[in-house]
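tool=predict chain=A
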Amino acid sequence: MKAFSIEDRLVGGNYPSFIIAELSANHNGSIKNAIDTIRAAKRAGADCIKFQTFTADTITLDSKKEDFKITQGTLWDGRYLYELYQEAYTPWEWHEELFRVAKEEGLICFSSPFDKTAVDFLENLNVPAYKIASFEITDIPLIEYTASKGKPIIISTGIAEQADIELALDACRRVGNNDIALLKCTSSYPAPIEEANMCMIKDLSERYKVISGLSDHTMGTTVPIVATALGGKIIEKHFILDRSIGGPDASFSMNEEEFTAMVKAVREAESAIGIVDYSLTEKQAKGKDFSRSLYVVKDIKAGEQITEENVRSVRPGFGMHPKYYKEVLGKKVSADLQKGDSLKWDYINK
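tool=predict ok
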Protein backbone atom coordinates (compact mmCIF):
# COMPACT_ATOMS: atom_id res chain seq x y z
CA MET A 1 0.00 0.00 0.00
CA LYS A 2 1.42 3.37 -1.00
CA ALA A 3 2.36 5.89 1.64
CA PHE A 4 0.87 9.33 2.21
CA SER A 5 2.43 12.40 3.82
CA ILE A 6 1.48 14.04 7.08
CA GLU A 7 3.52 17.22 6.98
CA ASP A 8 7.04 15.98 6.15
CA ARG A 9 6.42 12.47 7.49
CA LEU A 10 5.67 9.58 5.12
CA VAL A 11 3.21 7.11 6.62
CA GLY A 12 2.74 3.59 5.25
CA GLY A 13 4.77 1.66 2.69
CA ASN A 14 8.13 0.59 4.07
CA TYR A 15 8.41 3.62 6.34
CA PRO A 16 8.60 3.28 10.15
CA SER A 17 5.38 3.18 12.14
CA PHE A 18 3.82 6.57 12.85
CA ILE A 19 3.40 6.71 16.63
CA ILE A 20 0.65 8.94 18.00
CA ALA A 21 0.34 10.05 21.63
CA GLU A 22 -3.36 10.73 22.28
CA LEU A 23 -3.86 13.55 24.80
CA SER A 24 -7.67 13.11 25.03
CA ALA A 25 -8.81 14.25 28.50
CA ASN A 26 -5.44 13.69 30.13
CA HIS A 27 -4.86 17.38 30.83
CA ASN A 28 -7.63 17.11 33.48
CA GLY A 29 -8.66 20.70 32.89
CA SER A 30 -5.20 22.28 33.11
CA ILE A 31 -3.44 23.85 30.11
CA LYS A 32 -0.16 23.47 32.00
CA ASN A 33 -0.76 19.72 32.21
CA ALA A 34 -1.53 19.71 28.48
CA ILE A 35 1.69 21.55 27.61
CA ASP A 36 3.78 19.38 29.92
CA THR A 37 2.19 16.29 28.36
CA ILE A 38 3.15 17.43 24.86
CA ARG A 39 6.75 17.87 25.95
CA ALA A 40 6.75 14.50 27.69
CA ALA A 41 5.37 12.85 24.53
CA LYS A 42 8.32 14.21 22.59
CA ARG A 43 10.75 12.84 25.17
CA ALA A 44 8.97 9.47 25.01
CA GLY A 45 9.59 9.19 21.26
CA ALA A 46 6.15 9.98 19.82
CA ASP A 47 5.95 11.27 16.26
CA CYS A 48 2.67 13.06 16.87
CA ILE A 49 0.45 14.46 19.60
CA LYS A 50 -3.29 14.28 18.93
CA PHE A 51 -6.17 16.16 20.54
CA GLN A 52 -9.95 15.87 20.46
CA THR A 53 -11.91 18.92 19.37
CA PHE A 54 -15.44 19.05 20.73
CA THR A 55 -17.60 20.60 23.38
CA ALA A 56 -20.31 18.87 25.33
CA ASP A 57 -22.85 20.71 23.16
CA THR A 58 -21.28 19.62 19.85
CA ILE A 59 -21.12 15.95 20.79
CA THR A 60 -24.34 15.32 22.77
CA LEU A 61 -27.37 16.91 24.44
CA ASP A 62 -27.72 18.21 27.97
CA SER A 63 -30.37 15.68 28.90
CA LYS A 64 -31.04 13.49 31.91
CA LYS A 65 -33.21 11.11 29.93
CA GLU A 66 -32.25 7.47 30.28
CA ASP A 67 -30.80 7.32 26.74
CA PHE A 68 -28.09 9.75 27.82
CA LYS A 69 -27.01 7.80 30.91
CA ILE A 70 -23.98 5.50 30.49
CA THR A 71 -24.89 1.92 31.38
CA GLN A 72 -22.76 -0.20 29.02
CA GLY A 73 -20.38 -1.67 31.57
CA THR A 74 -17.73 1.04 31.16
CA LEU A 75 -15.53 3.01 33.55
CA TRP A 76 -18.07 5.80 33.32
CA ASP A 77 -21.29 3.91 34.08
CA GLY A 78 -23.89 5.94 35.94
CA ARG A 79 -22.73 9.26 34.50
CA TYR A 80 -24.57 11.28 31.88
CA LEU A 81 -22.88 11.96 28.54
CA TYR A 82 -23.07 15.73 28.80
CA GLU A 83 -21.43 15.75 32.22
CA LEU A 84 -18.65 13.42 31.07
CA TYR A 85 -17.85 15.43 27.95
CA GLN A 86 -17.89 18.70 29.88
CA GLU A 87 -15.14 17.22 32.03
CA ALA A 88 -13.21 15.62 29.16
CA TYR A 89 -13.12 18.31 26.47
CA THR A 90 -10.06 20.31 25.53
CA PRO A 91 -11.00 24.01 25.51
CA TRP A 92 -10.88 25.37 22.00
CA GLU A 93 -9.11 28.50 23.17
CA TRP A 94 -6.16 26.29 24.18
CA HIS A 95 -5.67 24.79 20.75
CA GLU A 96 -3.54 27.51 19.18
CA GLU A 97 -1.09 27.47 22.08
CA LEU A 98 -0.97 23.66 22.18
CA PHE A 99 -0.29 23.51 18.44
CA ARG A 100 2.48 26.09 18.89
CA VAL A 101 4.12 24.05 21.66
CA ALA A 102 3.88 20.86 19.60
CA LYS A 103 5.58 22.57 16.65
CA GLU A 104 8.24 23.96 18.97
CA GLU A 105 8.89 20.40 20.18
CA GLY A 106 9.07 19.04 16.64
CA LEU A 107 5.88 16.99 16.98
CA ILE A 108 3.24 16.69 14.30
CA CYS A 109 -0.09 17.79 15.73
CA PHE A 110 -3.69 17.23 14.64
CA SER A 111 -7.05 16.40 16.15
CA SER A 112 -10.28 14.44 16.01
CA PRO A 113 -13.20 16.70 15.08
CA PHE A 114 -16.66 15.72 16.28
CA ASP A 115 -18.76 18.06 14.16
CA LYS A 116 -18.45 20.41 11.18
CA THR A 117 -17.70 23.45 13.35
CA ALA A 118 -14.69 21.60 14.77
CA VAL A 119 -13.46 20.84 11.23
CA ASP A 120 -13.77 24.52 10.28
CA PHE A 121 -11.97 25.53 13.47
CA LEU A 122 -9.14 23.06 12.83
CA GLU A 123 -8.83 24.17 9.20
CA ASN A 124 -8.02 27.65 10.52
CA LEU A 125 -5.18 26.03 12.47
CA ASN A 126 -3.94 24.38 9.26
CA VAL A 127 -3.95 20.83 10.61
CA PRO A 128 -2.07 18.34 8.40
CA ALA A 129 -4.48 15.40 8.93
CA TYR A 130 -7.68 14.35 10.67
CA LYS A 131 -8.65 11.44 12.89
CA ILE A 132 -12.20 10.06 13.03
CA ALA A 133 -12.91 8.47 16.42
CA SER A 134 -14.41 4.99 16.65
CA PHE A 135 -17.85 6.15 17.76
CA GLU A 136 -18.04 8.64 14.87
CA ILE A 137 -17.48 6.09 12.11
CA THR A 138 -21.24 6.03 11.49
CA ASP A 139 -21.43 9.82 11.09
CA ILE A 140 -21.14 9.74 7.31
CA PRO A 141 -21.86 13.48 6.81
CA LEU A 142 -19.04 14.34 9.24
CA ILE A 143 -16.62 11.94 7.53
CA GLU A 144 -17.48 13.26 4.07
CA TYR A 145 -17.08 16.87 5.18
CA THR A 146 -13.78 16.14 6.93
CA ALA A 147 -12.41 14.15 4.00
CA SER A 148 -13.39 16.94 1.60
CA LYS A 149 -10.64 19.11 3.09
CA GLY A 150 -8.11 16.96 1.23
CA LYS A 151 -6.01 15.98 4.25
CA PRO A 152 -5.11 12.38 5.15
CA ILE A 153 -7.89 10.84 7.20
CA ILE A 154 -7.34 8.19 9.87
CA ILE A 155 -10.40 6.25 10.99
CA SER A 156 -10.73 4.03 14.06
CA THR A 157 -12.95 0.97 13.65
CA GLY A 158 -13.73 0.17 17.29
CA ILE A 159 -17.50 -0.23 16.86
CA ALA A 160 -17.57 -0.88 13.13
CA GLU A 161 -18.97 -3.78 11.21
CA GLN A 162 -17.96 -4.25 7.58
CA ALA A 163 -20.89 -2.19 6.33
CA ASP A 164 -19.85 0.73 8.57
CA ILE A 165 -16.27 0.61 7.27
CA GLU A 166 -17.42 0.49 3.67
CA LEU A 167 -19.78 3.46 4.13
CA ALA A 168 -16.98 5.49 5.73
CA LEU A 169 -14.53 4.64 2.95
CA ASP A 170 -17.11 5.45 0.30
CA ALA A 171 -17.66 8.84 1.95
CA CYS A 172 -13.93 9.63 1.73
CA ARG A 173 -13.53 8.42 -1.83
CA ARG A 174 -16.68 10.16 -2.99
CA VAL A 175 -14.97 13.50 -2.33
CA GLY A 176 -11.72 12.35 -3.95
CA ASN A 177 -9.80 11.55 -0.79
CA ASN A 178 -7.81 8.31 -1.04
CA ASP A 179 -5.26 9.09 1.69
CA ILE A 180 -6.99 6.85 4.21
CA ALA A 181 -5.85 4.71 7.12
CA LEU A 182 -8.00 2.31 9.14
CA LEU A 183 -7.04 1.57 12.73
CA LYS A 184 -8.01 -1.66 14.43
CA CYS A 185 -9.48 -0.62 17.75
CA THR A 186 -11.23 -2.42 20.59
CA SER A 187 -13.61 0.06 22.18
CA SER A 188 -13.27 -1.14 25.76
CA TYR A 189 -11.50 0.91 28.40
CA PRO A 190 -9.13 -0.75 29.15
CA ALA A 191 -9.46 -3.39 26.44
CA PRO A 192 -8.83 -7.07 27.26
CA ILE A 193 -5.78 -8.33 25.38
CA GLU A 194 -7.68 -11.42 24.22
CA GLU A 195 -10.05 -9.13 22.31
CA ALA A 196 -7.26 -7.32 20.42
CA ASN A 197 -7.75 -9.51 17.32
CA MET A 198 -4.56 -8.32 15.69
CA CYS A 199 -5.01 -10.49 12.60
CA MET A 200 -7.36 -7.69 11.48
CA ILE A 201 -4.37 -5.41 10.84
CA LYS A 202 -3.39 -7.30 7.70
CA ASP A 203 -6.97 -7.93 6.62
CA LEU A 204 -7.97 -4.25 6.83
CA SER A 205 -5.07 -3.29 4.58
CA GLU A 206 -5.60 -6.05 2.02
CA ARG A 207 -9.39 -5.98 1.95
CA TYR A 208 -9.84 -2.21 1.71
CA LYS A 209 -6.55 -1.18 0.01
CA VAL A 210 -5.64 1.30 2.73
CA ILE A 211 -2.89 1.78 5.29
CA SER A 212 -3.77 -0.04 8.50
CA GLY A 213 -2.72 0.41 12.09
CA LEU A 214 -3.76 0.26 15.72
CA SER A 215 -5.62 2.48 18.14
CA ASP A 216 -4.92 0.65 21.37
CA HIS A 217 -6.66 0.60 24.73
CA THR A 218 -4.97 -2.52 26.13
CA MET A 219 -2.44 -2.20 28.91
CA GLY A 220 1.22 -2.78 28.11
CA THR A 221 3.26 -3.07 24.93
CA THR A 222 2.37 -6.54 23.65
CA VAL A 223 -0.42 -5.49 21.30
CA PRO A 224 1.52 -2.60 19.66
CA ILE A 225 4.46 -4.96 19.04
CA VAL A 226 2.18 -7.56 17.46
CA ALA A 227 0.49 -4.86 15.36
CA THR A 228 3.89 -3.72 14.11
CA ALA A 229 4.92 -7.27 13.25
CA LEU A 230 1.69 -7.72 11.28
CA GLY A 231 2.24 -4.60 9.19
CA GLY A 232 0.53 -1.87 11.23
CA LYS A 233 1.90 1.51 10.15
CA ILE A 234 0.18 3.72 12.74
CA ILE A 235 0.23 3.09 16.49
CA GLU A 236 -1.94 5.28 18.71
CA LYS A 237 -1.93 5.14 22.51
CA HIS A 238 -3.47 7.38 25.17
CA PHE A 239 -0.70 9.28 26.93
CA ILE A 240 -0.65 10.91 30.38
CA LEU A 241 1.97 12.61 32.52
CA ASP A 242 0.98 10.63 35.59
CA ARG A 243 -2.14 8.55 36.19
CA SER A 244 -2.43 10.17 39.61
CA ILE A 245 -3.54 13.35 37.79
CA GLY A 246 -6.84 11.55 37.33
CA GLY A 247 -9.45 12.18 34.68
CA PRO A 248 -11.80 10.06 32.57
CA ASP A 249 -9.05 8.34 30.55
CA ALA A 250 -6.28 8.13 33.13
CA SER A 251 -6.66 4.46 34.03
CA PHE A 252 -5.93 3.16 30.50
CA SER A 253 -3.30 5.72 29.48
CA MET A 254 0.46 5.18 29.36
CA ASN A 255 2.79 7.40 31.33
CA GLU A 256 6.10 8.66 29.95
CA GLU A 257 8.15 5.69 31.14
CA GLU A 258 5.66 3.18 29.71
CA PHE A 259 5.28 5.03 26.41
CA THR A 260 9.05 5.27 26.04
CA ALA A 261 9.32 1.51 26.53
CA MET A 262 6.58 0.94 23.95
CA VAL A 263 8.29 3.15 21.36
CA LYS A 264 11.57 1.31 21.94
CA ALA A 265 9.82 -2.06 21.57
CA VAL A 266 8.05 -1.00 18.37
CA ARG A 267 11.28 0.30 16.84
CA GLU A 268 13.09 -2.91 17.79
CA ALA A 269 10.24 -4.94 16.26
CA GLU A 270 10.60 -2.95 13.03
CA SER A 271 14.34 -3.62 13.01
CA ALA A 272 13.70 -7.31 13.57
CA ILE A 273 11.18 -7.49 10.71
CA GLY A 274 13.62 -6.01 8.21
CA ILE A 275 13.15 -6.65 4.50
CA VAL A 276 13.07 -9.67 2.19
CA ASP A 277 16.73 -10.15 1.32
CA TYR A 278 18.51 -13.45 0.73
CA SER A 279 21.96 -11.91 0.49
CA LEU A 280 24.27 -12.15 3.49
CA THR A 281 25.88 -9.39 5.46
CA GLU A 282 29.67 -9.50 5.76
CA LYS A 283 29.32 -10.93 9.27
CA GLN A 284 26.80 -13.55 8.15
CA ALA A 285 29.06 -14.54 5.25
CA LYS A 286 31.93 -15.11 7.67
CA GLY A 287 29.62 -17.44 9.56
CA LYS A 288 29.76 -19.81 6.60
CA ASP A 289 33.26 -20.67 7.78
CA PHE A 290 31.50 -22.79 10.41
CA SER A 291 29.31 -24.64 7.92
CA ARG A 292 30.07 -28.18 6.73
CA SER A 293 32.37 -29.20 3.90
CA LEU A 294 34.28 -32.30 2.74
CA TYR A 295 37.40 -33.25 4.70
CA VAL A 296 39.81 -36.15 4.74
CA VAL A 297 39.18 -38.10 7.94
CA LYS A 298 41.71 -40.90 7.31
CA ASP A 299 45.04 -40.72 5.47
CA ILE A 300 44.76 -41.49 1.72
CA LYS A 301 47.66 -42.43 -0.52
CA ALA A 302 47.92 -41.11 -4.08
CA GLY A 303 45.94 -43.41 -6.39
CA GLU A 304 43.60 -44.68 -3.66
CA GLN A 305 39.85 -44.23 -3.89
CA ILE A 306 37.72 -41.86 -1.91
CA THR A 307 35.37 -43.83 0.34
CA GLU A 308 32.85 -43.19 3.10
CA GLU A 309 35.60 -44.19 5.56
CA ASN A 310 38.19 -41.61 4.48
CA VAL A 311 36.11 -38.57 3.50
CA ARG A 312 33.20 -37.03 5.42
CA SER A 313 31.14 -33.88 5.64
CA VAL A 314 32.29 -32.05 8.79
CA ARG A 315 32.79 -28.54 10.12
CA PRO A 316 34.45 -26.12 9.15
CA GLY A 317 33.50 -24.95 5.69
CA PHE A 318 36.82 -24.58 3.85
CA GLY A 319 36.57 -27.77 1.80
CA MET A 320 34.34 -28.81 -1.09
CA HIS A 321 30.61 -28.33 -0.78
CA PRO A 322 28.87 -31.43 0.65
CA LYS A 323 26.65 -31.53 -2.44
CA TYR A 324 29.61 -33.14 -4.26
CA TYR A 325 29.95 -36.00 -1.75
CA LYS A 326 28.31 -38.72 -3.84
CA GLU A 327 30.06 -37.44 -6.95
CA VAL A 328 33.56 -37.87 -5.49
CA LEU A 329 32.98 -41.26 -3.87
CA GLY A 330 34.95 -43.90 -5.80
CA LYS A 331 37.25 -41.39 -7.50
CA LYS A 332 41.01 -41.67 -7.02
CA VAL A 333 43.15 -38.96 -5.46
CA SER A 334 46.20 -37.55 -7.22
CA ALA A 335 48.29 -36.86 -4.12
CA ASP A 336 48.90 -38.14 -0.60
CA LEU A 337 46.28 -36.62 1.70
CA GLN A 338 46.35 -36.55 5.48
CA LYS A 339 43.55 -36.57 8.02
CA GLY A 340 42.38 -32.97 8.42
CA ASP A 341 43.11 -31.89 4.83
CA SER A 342 40.21 -30.13 3.13
CA LEU A 343 39.17 -31.95 -0.02
CA LYS A 344 39.56 -29.97 -3.24
CA TRP A 345 39.02 -30.77 -6.89
CA ASP A 346 42.75 -30.29 -7.46
CA TYR A 347 43.37 -33.49 -5.47
CA ILE A 348 41.04 -35.69 -7.52
CA ASN A 349 41.93 -37.43 -10.78
CA LYS A 350 39.71 -36.31 -13.59
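The radius of gyration is 30 Å. The longest strand covers residues 48-53.
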